[in-house]
Amino acid sequence: MKLVTAIIKPFKLDDVRQALADVGVKGVTVTEVKGFGRQRGHTELYRGAEYVVDFLPKMKVEVAIDDELLEQVIEVICNTARTGKIGDGKIFVTPLEQVIRIRTGETGPEAV
After folding, report:
1. Are strands 90-95 and 56-65 parallel, antiparallel or unpaired?
2. What per-residue confidence (pLDDT) applies to 83?
């Protein structure tokens, strides 16, 4: 099993969620996060004063999946979240040693 973590632009969240549901992903965890990559933030003007926005708003989408869905999930996230502009985000894949559903005690792929 794998944990796929994607950092995406906020306005792409609904599209990514729907695309994941379409390929059979049953559960998604979403967190509002802030950060920066190569773009290093930007400068904005507010009430005549210029200030630097160091951390940009992003969405962190986490999906626990069985190994057989991995390539399909990565492809769906890439295709759906891509705008072609800087700051589209990243995808991280990490192995899951064990998953347990608290309510039933199920383990492994059945718990996902």
Report:
1. unpaired
2. 94
